[in-house]
Amino acid sequence: MHRPATTARGTGVRTRGKVAIGAGAAVAALAVAGVVWGPGLYADWANSQAEAAPVLDVGDPVEDPASLDGRWTAQPGSYAGYRVDEVLRGENATATGRTEQVEAEVMLDDGAVTAATVTVDMASVATDQPPRDRYFRTSALATDVFPTATFELTEPAPLPAGATAVDLTGDLTIHGVTRQVTVAAELGATGQDAVQVVGSIPVTFADYDVEAPSLGFVRVQDAGFVEFSLVLARAG
To answer: Which residues, 6+ apart, have CB-to-CB distance to 195 below 8 Å?
Structure first.
């Protein structure tokens, strides 16, 4: 589920040079696997390891949005991460990283989302390949300096009665850089005390001062997606 999301404006939180990402040993290790197996076999294997895009698992359209008014927080089962495409000698492969180290607080008032903050522990994001994860945490995103990514709602978002779709506009901060995005999300409710919110945000790495890795014969595309699934429970 990659529904379109648009970037309205960008504001750099701090100015610094782009992170140089090139001939990291971890990326080289992944590339060697592709060379040994052959690009086609490696791509098939990598695609089989990729996680499915987040979708609504439970819940129904919200018939009475005002019934959800109150404070909601993330529960076990929530996750966030990324989806990127790698190219090895002309063969495309998808890689996904996930973490359940996610904190979220959402406020609803008069049938609208009036505040929302999501914080993701980037150092815990993991794929099926530890070498890729080490490269991601050190060279790509410098999680020792920028340990979290955040989303903060900046505009109220009314919940349409009888629908699951909701547009969430806010500030997305990755690698210490903040950009305003509008997320085409989906929301489903089970009774009055359980809500799931899922979404996918297109991200261009250069917008966050991150340069996609490339070793010539294997490279990561210049853009990917931030994905999330939040399981929320009423907190008050």
So the answer is: 59, 68, 72, 187, 188, 189, 231, 232, 233
Query: Can you read off the two tokens belonging to residue 88?
Result: 């090895």
Distance CA 147, CA 2 (A): 26
* Amino acid present at 158: P
Residue 34 and residue 3: Cα distance in Å, rounded? 31
Specify the pTM. 0.78
Do 229 and 198 contact (CB within 8 A), yes or no? yes
Q: Which residue has the tokens 């090895």?
A: 88
Classify 6-234 by CATH class: mainly beta
37-54 pLDDT tens trace: 444 455 454 555 667 889
Nearest to 117 by CA among 56, 171, 62: 171
Strands 194-204, 177-190: pairing kind: antiparallel
DSSP 140: I
